[in-house]
Structures are given as structure tokens and as C-alpha cells.
Amino acid sequence: MESIIHLQDVIWRRNRQEILKNINWEVKSGEHWCILGLNGSGKTSILNIVTGYNYPTAGRVSVLGNEFGKTNIPDLRKRIGYVSNSLGQFSQSLNREKVENIVVSGKFASIGLYEEVQQEDWEKADELLSTLRLRYVSGKHYQDLSQGEQRRVLIARALMADPEILILDEPCSGLDVLSREEVLGLMNDINKRNCHLLYVTHHIEEIVEAISHVLLVRDGEIVAAGRKQEVLTDDLLSETFKIPVNVRWDDERPWLTIPKIKVH
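RE: above sequence
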């Protein structure tokens, strides 16, 4: 099976502090992963290694068949879609744009349109809006959308370039229950687009049916990695979250409960 991402003995230090410790992780063709852990556990640091924004202090990294140190990182990034709260820094520019312009801009990895747009680009954007159940917001300005609609528009933008890897970094952060479920409801549609999903969160209830594998991270180290049914156990999640927890499954979706602690 083809290797999509391979991190081998990866260590990453910042200001002499070891942030990632001996990371060994492989994503294979057809797998869709959730990276799960507490805030500050190293989830985003792993993403920054995968996308080439941080270079490992030690170890080997290969993404989409490209070994780091022997490949053009900016070219590689064009094959990776990324939706993150960090895009909020561009909110002032996004607010003035119409939805379809934002989606099409994903082809050029720009905020705003500065290159000639072909008719097929507009048609593709319309198709993405339809697929992601957003056609009704076409023609509206970004600032007039709900938070959940804005997040879905950014996902459509990321898909515009037909990425081979789509990274969703806490896409449901700050959303209410309805908006969260609308975003999560897109996962099966995204899977049909022949891209590999990396979904990052610290909420296990966001691990929907479309996610096949889970990587558990704690304090810069891997607790476990594998098929979600094998990894999402009481013991492994308790170790990851540093508190006793129980997991139950409802319609192939995991939910977390925290046992009541008896006070003597």
C-alpha cells in the first residue's frame, strides 16, 4: 500500500526544548486520520512538520513520495489543502469578498483574486458549493455568513485545488452544536474526492464514520496509532487526556464520559 505520509524517528526542538520526541507515524493510501490530544500536546507541531513549515531537528520525513531535503517544499504544499483558525488573521480581507471568489482563490492559494479566472474555475466552485451544501450562500459576502457557513466555505476553498491531503485543524472550534454537525456532515463528501484527510481535534465526538485511523499524542510523544476501534479505548484515552475517562460508541461514533470521582 502506497505511503502518503511517513515520519521516521522525528525529533523537533525549539529554543533547546524538545517539542516532538521520536515520532514514528505512517499514513497509507486510503486512510483518513484524526490526530487527537490535549492543547499543547504536539498536534500542530506534527502538522507543521508534514507541511514543511518546521523542519525536523532529527529524523526523516516523506510526504506524497517526496523526501524532505530532496524536494521543493513550496511545490509540495500546493498538493496539500489546509483549513485552520490561523486563516482568521485574514478575516478583514475575507469579509469583503463574495463566497464564490473565496472558493476560486483556493486554486491560486491567495486571499483575493489576482490572476485570470477561467469559466471552468467558476463552474468548479459552484460544484463545490453544491457538494458542501452551500449553494444558497452564493453571491453573499463572507462577513454575512454564520461561523459554520464560513468554516464550510474555507473547506470548499481548500478543495478547489484538488489536494491529495486535506488538513482540517480544529475546524469545529468555537462552533455551536448545529454548526459543528453541519461541518462534520461534510466528511463523507470530502472522502469521495480522492484526498486523504487529517482531522485535528481534542474532542473524540468529532471522529465521525469517515475517519478510519487515530493518532493519540501526549506531551510531544505518540501514545498510540492505528484503527480507531483499537486506539479509542478507556486506558489509552485516559493516558492521553491525563484523567480517567470512559468511551462509548453510538452509531459508529465515539463519545467520552468522565466517571464521577468519589471524595472520601
